[in-house]
Amino acid sequence: MLWLRILFGILTLAVFAWANYFVYRRTVADTVKHPWVRRVMATLLAVMFLSVPVLRFAYRGEMPPPMVTAVVLTGWGFFIYTLLALMFVEVAKWIDRRRKKSAVPAAAPVSPERRVFLSRVAATGALAVGGSVGTFGAWRAFSPPSITEVPIKLPGHLTAREAGEIAAEAGVGRLLLTHVWPTLDGARAVEDAGQIYEGPIDLAVEGLTVYVGPYPVMAT
User: Fold this and answer.
1) Measured between alpha carbons, how far is 34 from 49 in angstroms, rounded to an integer?
2) How many CB atoms lie within 10 A of CB 82?
3) Beta carbons within 8 Å of 42's beta carbon, 6+ residues apart
4) Which of 18, 55, 29 has the alpha carbon at shortest distance from 115?
5) Distance between CA 176 and CA 201 in Å, rounded?
6) Is there a contact between 85 and 125 (Cβ–Cβ < 8 Å)?
7) Where are the domains of the chain?
């Protein structure tokens, strides 16, 4: 229903607005005294917060440019991991306050200078975690995938051409054709597989010994 989608959108914006304010308080307001630095950081957070809805509105039904997408996703990854790190710090501080509250006598109040120092340490650590994990995530997201397994449904025995297709898709270093149908010429099977797979192709014959692993393929 339309009103449910609108309500969900409003709640989502409210949660992300609170998250932006929380990150601003812990990384800027509690650690920086210069007004212009606060204004710059607040502007950057506001731009990042509005980047996703603005892009969705500007590119309705289309994909944004790859560079724009990379910048926005990297910024959001940095923000999300920084938020998680700050929330972890807040939980640790809450546990510490609960422990000190039950202690007798009560601990002395923390001086303002020490409070600022601790806030800067927590903010620096959170920003370091967010930046490193966010950057690594962006690098992994935009790097070519590494294929380790290729699940393939086989209806039965393969043709030589199908074996060549699978070998080329899996990126193997060598192809060995076996269980060749007696009525099929071996040279023809190698030729059919070679139309797809460009690597070395061997034909299994009686007496052939193949060493799999760090040893080269040898025939005896």
Assistant:
1) 23
2) 24
3) 24, 28
4) 29
5) 6
6) yes
7) 2-141, 147-220
Helix or strand or coil: residue 177? strand
Higher local confidence (pLDDT), 164 or 110: 164
Q: What is the DSSP letter of 1?
A: -
C-beta pairs of 176-180 under 8 Å, 24+ apart in sequence? 176/201, 176/202, 176/203, 176/204, 176/210, 176/217, 177/201, 177/202, 177/203, 177/204, 178/204, 179/204, 180/204
Whole-number Cα distances in Å, 65 to 56, 58, 59, 92, 93? 12, 11, 10, 41, 42
- Kindly state the tokens that stand for 39: 């204004």
d(CA 138, CA 75): 9
What are the pLDDT digits (tens) for 153-205? 666 778 888 889 988 888 888 899 988 877 778 888 889 899 999 889 988 88
Average pLDDT estimate for 54-68: 80
DSSP bridge partners of 202: 176
- For residue 110, pLDDT beyond 70: no
Tokens standing for residue 171: 């990126």
Structure tokens at 37: 């630095």
Q: Pull the structure tokens for residue 210.
A: 């193949």
Q: Which two tokens stand for residue 12?
A: 């989502």
- Cis-peptide, bond into residue 145, ω within 30° of zero: no
